[in-house]
Design a protein that fits this description.
This protein is mainly α. It has one domain. Strands 1-2 form a two-stranded antiparallel ribbon. Strand 1 and strand 2 form a beta hairpin.
């Protein structure tokens, strides 16, 4: 059987390094934002994150010039802050874990892209550095998705070598 991984390709290795690096940045949510707080045994947002997230988002929305986004956040996110605290914490943890392991890399990169776009819309008006960071991170997520970065040094590649159907043009790998 022919190997579907691209371990010898320098561009694929560079994408794999970038995948792990960005994955670790998202996976830090496991330590900083998660606890086993849902029903006492399921992972969810920590009490600290549930308390802190609406304050951060409120400051970000105070002068946000994007009317439709500000209306969405103030009308939907802030009234349901605990739900969105769980979603952001779990989203970051899942995206980070998938990217670091190279498992379901396409799904992980799309989750990270969705989070990045929302964080970017919330903060782009606050500083040029924030704007540039989120543009760059979004571009990296698109590159990881298109480049199928999990096929090199990732579990997607390992599974594709073992199971032909796994990596055959699947968006999750």
């Amino acid at each position: 059987m022919r190997s579907t991984t691209r371990n010898g390709d320098p561009a694929a290795r560079a994408l794999a390094i970038l995948r792990v690096w960005v994955g670790l940045w998202f996976a830090k949510a496991i330590v900083t934002k998660l606890s086993f707080s849902l029903f006492g045994f399921l992972p969810g947002a920590s009490d600290r994150w549930i308390e802190t997230m609406p304050k951060i988002v409120g400051r970000q929305m105070a002068e946000n010039p994007i009317g439709w986004y500000k209306a969405f956040v103030e009308g939907t996110v802030l009234p349901h802050a605990a739900t969105f605290a769980h979603l952001t914490a779990l989203g970051e943890a899942v995206a980070g874990t998938f990217l670091v392991l190279g498992l379901f890399t396409g799904v992980g990169s799309l989750i990270a892209l969705l989070l990045t776009m929302n964080y970017g819309l919330a903060t782009w008006h606050m500083s040029p550095a924030s704007e540039g960071f989120h543009y760059t991170l979004a571009a990296v997520m698109v590159a990881l998705f298109i480049g199928r970065a999990g096929m090199t040094w990732g579990l997607d590649g390992l599974l594709a070598d073992q199971r032909q159907w796994w990596g055959a043009k699947r968006p999750w790998s």
